[in-house]
Amino acid sequence: MIKLTNIEKVYRTSTIETLALNNINIDIKKGDFVSIMGPSGCGKSTLLNVMGLLDEPSSGSVEIGGQQVGKYRDKELAHLRNQKIGFIFQSFHLINDLSVIDNVEIPLLYRPSTNKSRRDAAREALEKVGLSNRMKHFPTQLSGGQKQRVAIARAIVGNPEIILADEPTGNLDSAMGNEILNILLQLNAEGSTIIMVTHDESMAKKTHRLIRLFDGSQVS
């Protein structure tokens, strides 16, 4: 589903060069649930951005669903992201001026669809995360755990094959964090391939595989 080969990512300024990722080789199969762990600043989010086609590696190759994407133009990458990948962020990235259901619909606005089909898909996604009674609320009226469930609904509304989650439980207490992890485990059981960045060892142990990074290098 995702294959990274000899990935390096270097950030350069006029005065300094920073090696963010060094010789990363990862092969993630369909249906995997993989955790990525490591200290702050070790390259976890950079790695997730490379997997999600939000950032281009300095060298090496990226395959998504068997497709080599190195020569894709920006428009082709955006289309592939929209069709195959759902993103869940630690800080939710919800739009406060939009209702919950309107927030969830956003990824579908970039696909050929009708108002009714978008609404139906958003309702179904919200029901799946247990928020069918909050569709007309606004993000400012929700708890942190509810906001994260809205973010998950937005990530899955287009039925992506891959879900990338960057610290999805990082801003939540342990009880709510476990609720969110259980939703991800259920999505995985239904066929989604999930890659999750986390600082929580107990969360990571519930996934299929753990990848550890240190100073931009893969150590396990």
Could you provide a short overview of the structure?
The protein is an alpha/beta fold and 220 residues long.
Explain this structure.
The protein is an alpha/beta fold. Helices cover 33% and strands 27% of the residues. It has seven helices and ten strands. The chain has helices at 44-51, 74-84, 100-105, 115-128, 144-156, 174-189, 201-204; strands at 2-12, 17-28, 33-37, 59-64, 67-68, 85-89, 162-166, 193-197, 209-214, 217-218. The chain has a six-stranded mixed beta sheet with strand order 6-7-8-3-9-10, sandwiched between helices. Strands 2-1-4-5 form a four-stranded antiparallel beta sheet, with helices on one face. The radius of gyration is 17 Å and the shape is globular. The two termini are 20 Å apart.
Layout: helices, strands, pairs:
Blueprint: E1 2-12, E2 17-28, E3 33-37, H1 44-51, E4 59-64, E5 67-68, H2 74-84, E6 85-89, H3 100-105, H4 115-128, H5 144-156, E7 162-166, H6 174-189, E8 193-197, H7 201-204, E9 209-214, E10 217-218
Parallel strand pairs: 3-8, 3-9, 6-7, 7-8
Antiparallel strand pairs: 1-2, 1-4, 4-5, 9-10
Helix pairs in contact: 4-5
